[in-house]
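Hello,

Our lab assistant flagged a job as stuck in the queue for most of the afternoon. It eventually completed. Since we weren't sure the result was trustworthy after the delay, we are filing this so someone can double-check. Below is the sequence as submitted and the structure that was eventually returned. Let us know if re-running is recommended.
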Amino acid sequence: MEKFTQLSGVAAPLPIINVDTDMIIPKQFLKTIKRTGLGRNLFDEMRYNEDGSEKPDFVLNRAPWREAKILVAGDNFGCGSSREHAPWAIADFGIRCIIAPSFADIFYNNCFKNAILPIILPADQVAALSVRAASDDPVMTVDLESQTITAGDLEIAFEIDEFRKHCLLNGLDDIALTMERVGKIEAYEQRQRTDFPWLAAR
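-- returned structure --
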């Protein structure tokens, strides 16, 4: 998994509450098990007309926000079904950080497994960042080590679980965490073969 240390880039405002996973990536795009290619259909129904043309008023279809790396969202972001395709689509688009007053639990957990940093802040701070994201200078810097967001003259601190922070800083997903203990796993398997040889014979 890609490490997350510091991220600087354009932040896009999406001040909509209860954005569910079907809005993030509609069900017709869930046939793939690949993590790539889904960014094209992120927020599909909000981004495109029925003929496939872009809706010019949607934020991610406009410069500079079409290059957004940070999303400033509304309350209860990622609610609905538990589809992991939602963070896959967000990451494939290029967004590595989402800032919101609250997240749906399963979506929040899935973000960490896909190198996305979800940041929970009070509503007034999210509103201030959303205003900044909608301005002529929407560039922000998110520093995970210092746990700060910098946007112009704004500097906001955020909280994050220490274990989740460790995993993001070091690029550790569930598989990588398991592989850190490969020596102990192999030693256990060797003991099993020695102490219970009939199990290995199966």
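-- support follow-up --
The delay was a queue issue, not a problem with the job. The result is valid. The mean pLDDT is 93. The CA atoms of residues 8 and 138 lie 11 Å apart.
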